[in-house]
Amino acid sequence: MRYLILTVLSATFLGCTATPKKSDSDNAVQKSPISYQPYLEERAPNLTPTLNVPENVIINNATIMTAENQTLKGGSIWMKDGKIQKISESEIKIEGAIVIDAAGKFITPGIIDTHSHMGVYSVPHVRATSDGNEATNKATPQVDALNSIWPQDPAFEKAVQAGVTVAQVLPGSANLIGGNGVVIEMHPAISARAMLMEAAPKTIKMACGENPKRVYGERGGPGTRMGTYAAFRDLFEKATEHMKSLEAYDKKLDKWKKDGEKADQKPEEPKRNFGQEAIVSVLKGETLVQIHCYRADEMIQLVQLSEEFGFSIRAFHHAIEAYKIRDLLAARNIGVSTWADWWGFKLEAHDATLHNAAMLSEAGVYAVVHSDSSTGIQHLNQEAAKIYFSGKKAGLKISENDALRWITYNAAWTLGIEKLTGSLKEGKRADLVVWSKHPFSIYAQPDYVFVEGVREFDRQKPNARWSDFETGYTPMIKPAQTKTKGGTK
Amino acid sequence: MKNIIFCLILTFSHPLFAQDVFRGGTIYTGTGELIENGFLSLNSKGEISQVDTDSAKNKTNPSYDFRGKFITPGFIDAGTVLGLSEIWAVSDTNHGGAGDLDRDKDFNQSGYLAAEGFNPNAMAIALSRTGGITSAIIHPSGRLISGQSAWVDLESTKMFNAKVIDPSVAIHVSLNSKSARSVGGSVAGIVLLLKEAFDDTKYLSQNDKELDRTRGKKSSLSRQDVLALKKALDKKIPIVFSVSRAVDILTAIELSKTYGFQLIVSGGEEAWMVADELAAAKVPVMLNPYANLPSNFDKLGTRVDNVVLLHNAKVDVMLSTFDGHNVRNLRFAAGNAIRAGLPYQAALSAITTTPAKYFGAKNVGSLETGKAGNFVVWTGDPFEPSSFVEAMFINGKKVSLDNRQEALFRKYRTFKRRGTVPAKRIKLQDGDNGDK
User: Fold this and answer.
1) What is the ipTM of this complex?
2) Nearest by CB to A347, which of B90, B343, B384?
3) Nearest Cβ partner for A307 among B272, B301, B424
4) B68 and B81: one domain?
5) Which of A27, B36, B209, B338 has its CA 20 to 30 A from that of B143?
6) Chain B residue with the nearest C-alpha to that of A211
7) Which of A7, A442, A445 best tests the B interface by mutation, with the highest count of B CBs <10 A?
8) For A284-347, where are the alpha helices, taking DSSP H only?
9) Contact B308 A352 (CB under 8 A)
10) What CATH number should be reported for the domain holding residue B166?
């Protein structure tokens, strides 16, 4: 399944809407006008499929936060065949289904992290596990994070136990074009390919600012921001030429077919160029562009670049200064994935404010709270909560539903999978978390995590260790026997 | 009239005292006590003059009504690099360690004082207050013996946002694979170097002539280093070991017994494995309760309930962000420790009384008569993201909660002089030559 992403052009006035524009209807499945589409090749076949058996299960008595602007008290949800079959305000009874009583608990969609390096920067952090930056050329569009992911990274287990059901694993930010990202489902598997979310469109990582400058400043450039911009223009100009050559071949092929397919006149197939094809895919709107960029003025330049070459930016990542241009981002329907409160590590991260995501959200931008960290990914609910409560206190017009969307629906939109997951809706994937308390409490922890209806975490009955690395290695004693008691009373 | 006075007091950041009385809410004293309907008063020196249950005999008008709110001691992060770097990647702003300082004693920088590199106007300081932080210990980094940490209070002075209360509260040592690599050796090599340094300190500090000869001369220690280490071997200040592996923690305990210093374990990812040994040696552990990944080969035994297992074994624990820019998140670290199973009051002590106890601050950490008026008024449970600092007092003086991040927010809350965003430029297709 492929998505052609069209961008809504209508201007959104700042602050007039609290939720991003609906774009479900914009995700039309449309065939590219070019019939020769090497760049749309499927990834290599999955040679080791994982047996994921979805449960037929009903969870009763919970507070269900759907991320569809709806909270059901004493709600009930039924999952079967990996899909949400029914959500109800009263108890659901289905013969043969397993029943979980979740009195006092909360259900949310599974958390989606748009920016992870799990598997490409695995723990333990040693040279041997450092596979995130192919820092051998300023642009490596031909590489795919899929080929770096170590499926035994112990971080995967911790992430799923924290309620993460889907994550985008990206190459690092050393290169202007770092390569393709991967949208993975949090099922343990023997290969990264078996974790790939088949239905997700391709994504690509780009970067600007201090990182590429630092890495390539003494390796042939670019060593400046102007050099970076010029290099981007060159890259997109070359890819545009490549696209034109593909289109020309396509026309010749059509003509040749019309003229009777004479063997001696068959046009010569263009040479494969995997890097060019990856960028052509961006130009055709088939690959979602995810750009690491901090400063407002640089984001503006990249929007200019995208309009010069006619491609869409799906989301800026980190984007510490995005709040300064939230009007522009809202008008262009460009999402922003950022942290709650990281700052201070470089000059381009100096103008941080805790209210970045909340201001963006208020302005109608698809705001996302991402982790960029195998520790941070384990408390994205807390990160969203920090921004939400601070934003409310500061008088921003944001709702609990908005805040939940920062780590669910909006993240799904950023990855082009919002029709499949990211909210609790009948017919969508059964990706959900059952929390011990309200997910915006510091004391909340997942009791159950379902990934496409498969129970990947159950606090009472922990699975076998995900990672072979941690299997049989660590001395273990029973978990500490202390009641978790949040609150002050 | 009463209301007007009340509003005035709330509005103005006043130098207060004497009559300042807080009535009606819940007080966590930090000593394990919880006082509902509390009463807290300050004397003219900014010290706590009374902390108790409110009663009819307290006739004073409430100058600060905190009904429905909470008062805790100011939080203390014992493991920070606050104010030692404005921006990590801008080397000009980094003053956190001796680095490549041209000294003979390359592994040993005991004489180095973090306090001398502290920037009391670093932007992270004002921000830290929003997390209820009133004090922090700032430690130097790098080499095997990095130098001495300082106690800083986030109190406003005429020109600064913080002040150094004590420039020498502990010596900091790294005993782990990373620091071993930094000197080209193994952890065994570190132990060798440490033993030499401790032996030489003992010898030189008992022998003034020999000590004088270290001036301007090569030796395993310089005069400044000896004087600093001597304080630790005389048990005047503790030595904080940055150490993760259980077996290395045992080594550190052995060293502390042999040379007679108070050991504090920092990091301590595998400390739970040797919890009984730590308890027996009365060694506290300072840790980050978010740590649960085997992030390097020293930390394969990392687990999120480390803090709980240590507490259950009667080891004193301190919680730290180990951060410089986000020390404000210490309260969430405490919340996470509770989530992992640490009792509420233990989490509170871990960021108040315990660091005060081990880093030699006798008059802070808890709310008791005669102690400094360092406390925070919270809108709710201080560990929840839904709660905020409503007011903060250091030495009885109300401090500002404003910071640069809020200033940026205010500046960009509305767009002044910003025109309408133009419509997207449509890329022309081949053959098109007009406007679309």
Assistant:
1) 0.92
2) B90
3) B424
4) no
5) B209
6) B89
7) A442
8) 296-309, 326-332
9) no
10) 3.20.20.140
Question: Of the candidates B312, B335, B405, which has its C-beta nearest A353's C-beta?
Answer: B405
Regarding whether B370 and B360 lie in a shared domain, the answer is: no
pLDDT tens by residue, A132-167: 999 999 999 999 999 999 999 999 999 999 999 999
Q: Is residue A274 part of a domain?
A: yes
* Structure-derived torsion over alpha carbons of residues B418, B420, B426, B432, reported in degrees to the nearest 10: -110
Domains: count for chain A:
1
Kindly give the parts of chain A with pLDDT less than 70.
1-41, 474-489
Domain extent at residue B81: 75-364
Residue B424 domain-assigned?
Answer: no
In a shared domain, residues B269 and B230: yes
Q: Which residues contact B225 (CB under 8 A, 6 or more apart)?
A: B105, B108, B109, B110, B111, B145, B197, B201
8 Å CB contact of B299 and A124: yes
Query: Which structural domain range is residue A345 located in?
Result: 4-51+110-233+270-423
Test B427 with A309 for CB contact under 8 angstroms.
yes
Q: What is the mean pLDDT of chain B?
A: 90
In tens, the pLDDT along B252-276 reads 999 999 999 999 999 999 999 999 9
**Residue ranges of chain B with pLDDT lower than 70?**
1-19, 59-61, 100, 102-105, 214-220, 425-436
Q: How would you classify the pairing of strands B239-243 and A57-65?
A: unpaired
Q: Which of B119, B269, B295, B418 to mutate to test binding with chain A, by most A CBs within 10 Å of its CB?
A: B295
Chain A partners within 8 Å of B418 (Cβ): 327
**Domain assignment present for A73:** no
pLDDT digits (tens, 9 = 90+) for B218-262: 556 788 899 999 999 999 999 999 999 999 999 999 999 999 999
Are both B395 and B342 inside the same structural domain?
Answer: no
B424/A332 touch (CB, cutoff 8 Å), yes or no: yes
Residue in A with minimal Cα distance to B301: A474
Q: Which of B333, B349, B364 is the last residue of a domain?
A: B364
Number of domains within chain B: 2
Is B158 in the same domain as B288? yes
Helix (H, G, I), strand (E, B) or coil at B329: helix
> Does residue B278 lie in a domain region?
yes
CA distances from B159 to A402, A446, B121 (A): 41, 47, 8
Question: With contacts defined as CB-CB under 8 Å, which chain B residues touch A379?
Answer: 290, 336
Per-residue pLDDT at B65:
85
Note whether A149 and A169 are within 8 A (CB): yes
Domain presence at residue A87: no
- Interface probe, candidates B386, B413, B426, B428, chain A, greatest A C-beta count within 10 A: B386
Would B1 be classed as within a structural domain? Answer: yes
Give yes or no for a contact between B243 and B175, defined as CB atoms under 8 angstroms apart.
Answer: yes
Residue B330 lies in a domain: yes
CA angle A176, A177, A182 (to 5 degrees): 140
Assign A316 to helix, strand or coil.
strand
Beta-ladder partners of A448? A434, A458
Please enumerate in sequence order all residues whose Cβ is within 8 A of that of A31, keeping only pairs 6 or more positions apart, or say none: none
- Closest CA of chain A from B328, distance in Å: 10
Residue in B with minimal Cα distance to A384: B385
